[in-house]
């Protein structure tokens, strides 16, 4: 399962490796941030169909929710945009108590 946040280039290399191994994978990318979001735009998380992941889109705040959504994206084949923030009713459930808001684009890539 996931570990400490890898630099984004390493996350993309992991995605390439997993795809070469024949894994079905999704890539989650931070596409917009507001306030004190913990990871910058362009940060990545790669997720396989079993829920294994590498990287970070929020420094640990919402990774679990993103992984769950990404597994569904892999199965359904349709990308989606996820939004988390303290103004959102899911903020406290998923732990984004850092004060910012983030938008994450999740797409199946292999």
Tell me what the structure shows:
The structure is a single chain. The protein has 110 residues and is of the alpha+beta class. The chain has one domain (8-108). The chain is 28% helix and 29% strand. The protein contains three helices and five strands. The protein has helices at 8-20, 63-76, 91-94; strands at residues 25-34, 44-48, 53-55, 80-85, 101-108. It has a five-stranded antiparallel beta sheet with strand order 3-2-1-5-4. The longest helix is centred in the middle third of the chain and has 14 residues, at 63-76. It is globular, with a radius of gyration of 13 Å. The mean pLDDT is 84.
Topology (elements, then pairings):
Blueprint: H1 8-20, E1 25-34, E2 44-48, E3 53-55, H2 63-76, E4 80-85, H3 91-94, E5 101-108
Antiparallel strand pairs: 1-2, 1-5, 2-3, 4-5
InterPro entries: MoCofactor_Util/Proc, XdhC_CoxI
Domain XdhC- CoxI: 18-85
Organism: Plantimonas leprariae
């Amino acid at each position: 399962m996931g570990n400490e946040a890898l630099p984004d280039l390493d996350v993309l290399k992991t995605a390439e490796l997993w795809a070469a191994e024949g894994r079905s994978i999704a890539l989650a990318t931070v596409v917009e941030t507001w306030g004190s979001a913990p990871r910058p735009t362009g940060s990545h998380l790669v997720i396989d169909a079993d829920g294994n992941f590498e990287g970070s889109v929020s420094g640990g705040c919402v990774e679990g929710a993103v992984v769950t959504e990404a597994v569904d994206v892999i199965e359904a084949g349709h990308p989606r945009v996820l939004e988390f923030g303290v103004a959102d009713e899911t903020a406290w459930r998923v732990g984004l108590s850092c004060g910012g808001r983030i938008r994450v684009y999740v797409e199946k890539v292999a």
